[in-house]
Design brief:
This protein is mainly alpha-helical and 246 residues long. It has one domain: Rhomboid-like (Rhomboid-like fold, Up-down Bundle). Helices cover 56% and strands 9% of the residues. Strands 1-2-3 form a three-stranded antiparallel β-sheet. A hairpin with a 2-residue loop joins strand 2 and strand 3. The relative contact order is 0.17.
């Protein structure tokens, strides 16, 4: 299922979402301009390599500088290819504005970075000996999905379902679409623990960690009613218009 529309109404322009998408795209364009050797050095410096930190914890060394923990944040602005970038930015564009609208710009940015950090920590915790650089915004975006499911469980999302190459447009509840997505991430994460070779190059536990962070933190950061007027019935709410349709 590929989501193509989220109909939850918003009042304010999603400035931070636009900035995050622009930042991710600019960083990827810079990545794409590097030579192969330069790209390897760039990824090693700014992507997240769990084994570096597990070695530090087991050896008890204390010579890590604050800059050594920068990859826990910078990894969420790197991507492994155009398809990786497009899928992540499409999901951010589709669901991010609704969350930014309810949290406010400053809280939304802090929320996004916190979910990305939670995703990084989860990845290091469950893949302590991995030397494969982890990169991508999907952990932070998983936090947005978790928050969306918590705030708008009954909002309707239009998705495309391909059956024998024939696209079908279907309306589903947010809790159904996002819930199925999360179950897939959890299943793949568990399989990765039982059969490490089955996990491939996807940081499944980062998705799980980011989602749980967003599901938990998002509702705590929602604007108060004094700062954000609620929608009245004639304005539509939770993804429905005044007649109960999407």
């Amino acid at each position: 299922m590929i989501p193509i529309r989220n109909a939850v109404p918003s009042r304010y322009p999603p400035v931070i979402t636009w900035m995050l998408i622009a930042a991710n795209c600019l960083v990827f364009v810079f990545q794409d301009s590097l030579s192969p050797s330069e790209l390897v050095l760039f990824v090693r410096q700014f992507a997240l390599i769990p084994a570096l930190y597990s070695d530090f914890l087991t050896s008890g060394e204390t010579d890590l500088a604050a800059s050594d923990f920068l990859p826990f944040f910078t990894m969420m602005f790197l991507h492994g290819g155009w398809l990786h970038l497009i899928l992540n930015m499409w999901t951010l564009w589709l669901f991010g504005p609704s969350i930014e609208d309810r949290l406010g710009h400053g809280r939304y940015l802090a929320f996004y970075l916190a979910c990305g950090l939670a995703a990084s920590l989860a990845h290091v915790l469950f893949n302590p000996v991995s030397i494969v650089p982890a990169l991508g915004a999907s952990g932070a975006i998983a936090g947005i999905l978790g928050c969306f499911m918590r705030l708008f469980p009954l909002a309707r999302i239009i998705v495309i379902v391909l059956i024998l190459f024939i696209p079908l447009f279907v309306e589903v509840y947010a809790f159904v679409f996002i819930g199925l997505w999360f179950l897939i991430q959890l299943f793949q994460s568990t399989m990765g623990l039982l059969l490490p070779s089955s996990s491939g190059d996807v940081a499944w536990w980062a998705h799980v960690g980011g989602f749980l962070a967003g599901f938990t933190l998002g509702p705590l950061l929602v604007r108060s009613r004094q700062r954000y007027r609620v929608y009245y019935p004639d304005e539509g709410m939770l993804g429905f218009d005044t007649n109960g349709r999407i």
